Amino acid sequence: MITRKAGPALAAGCTMVIKPANETPFTALAMAELANQAGIPQGVINVVTGQSREIGAVFTGDERVRKLSFTGSTEVGRVLMRQCAESIKKLSLELGGNAPFIVFDDADIDKAVEGALIAKFRNAGQTCVNRFYIHRAVYDQFCDKFVARVAALKVGDGSESDVQIGPLINADAGRKVQSLLDDALSRGATLLTGGKAHPLGGNFFTPTVIGDVQPGSLLLQEEDFRPGGGAGEI
């Protein structure tokens, strides 16, 4: 994610200051070290860690900062937009998403299943694809194949070569996942596989698919970073 932002900035001849998420600072620091080893001059790529609110206020208020790029929650994005408006600072926002994956009745179902796995289950499900809308003529066929593939995903330590799903970012993420699932099931959805904490413990969660997700379910409205998705007919 950082390289997507840093690459164009470097190509345009800009320096930058990177503020990584508090939960994942080491990857940003490692990237900065690699940039240093690659010969990028000191001071071109900078990383600062600390309290997001205070650092964000400096980024938005300092006139030396010509542009701010942020990936994160919609709530924080609104705050940054208001703060940047004071100086009409250029701003790029990539905020909370709940993207659909749609399968029509003329689709190649095997390819659709593979595409759905890549769209949702990469990075332990921490992507913006959450909703699967399947044409009723192929709904059962798609779900049967999709559930079989999801149930076979191996959960564990990401340093092991055959592991496909790692842990969620923290315990709060696990609690949110469970609350979204509970809400969907209480509204009439059907659990097709998974739906609970993994026996490995910690922040591991079983790869999950739920079907017959009803309109109004929070799962269809809120960002959901987990190894799972909800399917409904169209």
Explain what you see.
The chain has helices spanning 2-11, 25-37, 52-61, 74-85, 109-121, 139-151, 171-186; strands at residues 16-18, 45-47, 67-71, 90-94, 99-103, 129-134, 190-193, 208-211, 228-233. It has 234 residues and is α/β, with parallel strands linked by helices. A five-stranded mixed beta sheet has the order 5-6-9-8-7, with helices on both faces. Helix 5 links the parallel strand 5 and strand 6 (129-134). 24% of the residues are buried. The model has no long low-confidence stretch (mean pLDDT 85). Its EC number is 1.2.1.79. It is an enzyme of class 1 (oxidoreductase).
The major sheet is characterized as: 5 strands, mixed
Give the termini separation.
33 Å
Average residue-wise pLDDT = 85
The oligomerization state is single chain
The Cα radius of gyration reads 20 Å
CATH superfamily of the largest domain: Aldehyde Dehydrogenase, Chain A, domain 2
Taken from the alpha-carbon principal axes, the silhouette is: elongated
In spatial order, strands of the major sheet run: 5-6-9-8-7
| Helix/strand/pairing category | alpha/beta
- How many extended strands? 9
Q: How many DSSP helices?
A: 7
The CATH topology name of the largest domain reads Aldehyde Dehydrogenase, Chain A, domain 2
List low-confidence stretches.
Answer: none
Pfam families: Aldedh
GO molecular function: succinate-semialdehyde dehydrogenase (NAD+) activity; succinate-semialdehyde dehydrogenase (NADP+) activity
Active site: 94
Domain Aldehyde dehydrogenase: 1-227
